[in-house]
Amino acid sequence: MTAFLVLAALVALLCLCLILAVWVLETHLPSEEGSDVILVLGAQVKPDGTPSIALERRMTTALGAYRELQRPIICCGARGVNEPAPEGEVMRNWFLSQGCPEGDVIAETGSFNTRENLVNAKAIMQARGCKRALIVTSDYHVPRALALARQEGVDASGRGSPSKPQYFLRNHLREGLSWIKFLMESGWHI
Predict the structure, then answer these.
(1) What is the mean predicted confidence (pLDDT) over 149-162?
(2) Nearest to 175 by CA among 25, 61, 13, 30
(3) Is the pTM for the entire model greater than 0.85?
(4) Beta strands of 57-151 (E only): which ranges?
(5) Domains and CATH numbers, the chain
(6) Pairing of strands 155-161, 37-41
């Protein structure tokens, strides 16, 4: 029984450390200065074609950045399971409905994960002469997205869209576990 309690306490401590580490990383982001394109990472589109809450929050944050910076927007995301249209296309249509000029919003619809988002967006950036991206994603996801951007040779800063407070522990713990996987796949190098 004592060994079980010690193990449970160690697991709880590890989880707390992961949550805290993700929170610290997301509150210490590089400066957005010099960003010449806004890169919005996709999230779920509901079967009825409307954006999920996470996607809507990302788009709202990116729209705020667009209005501040007046930079083109790249909307990233393919069509996932049970999604009626690619995430990038749904986002592009949303930005257009918000009054963004057609030439300022590009849909990238071939990527199924963050790394693919960055690789495909990098090609679009290069074609348009863009050098530095402002990556917009969920708050807890920004630091790992920036680490992936560095690996893919994308100079970037980030802005996080707020997550629902009731999911803080779940999102941050899941992201902490994703960091462990990311670091293991990267040979513990960022």
Answers:
(1) 96
(2) 25
(3) yes
(4) 73-76, 105-108, 132-138
(5) 28-164 (3.40.50.620)
(6) unpaired
